[in-house]
Specification:
This protein is mainly alpha-helical and about 80 residues long. The chain has one domain: Orthogonal Bundle (434 Repressor (Amino-terminal Domain)). Helix 2 crosses helix 3. The chain is built from 6 helices and no strands.
Length: about 80
């Protein structure tokens, strides 16, 4: 779930893998490669990094961890409503 949702959120935010990684505090030299590995499910970011990634994209971190896709979408919808 996390790889697919991470990529979807990144694309929706209009960020490259490298830019997202750098904004989340990943070393500039490895940001693109690490984000690519996270999105492909080869590696998983630790919870702290997942929270930073979510913060950069202005979404709740729990979006990445919801088991059901419907629930993940409801989390995003709720988050948007709460901000308005």
């Amino acid at each position: 779930m996390l790889p697919h949702r991470l990529k979807a959120a990144r694309l929706k935010a209009g960020l490259s893998q490298e830019r997202l990684g750098i904004l989340a505090g990943v070393d500039e030299a490895t940001a693109s490669a690490r984000m690519n590995q996270y999105e492909r499910g080869i590696h998983t970011p630790d919870f702290e990094l997942a929270c930073r990634l979510a913060s950069v994209m202005n979404i709740p971190a729990c979006y990445f961890y919801a088991v059901e896709d419907d629930l993940a979408e409801m989390i995003l919808d709720y988050s948007k409503e709460k901000k308005n």
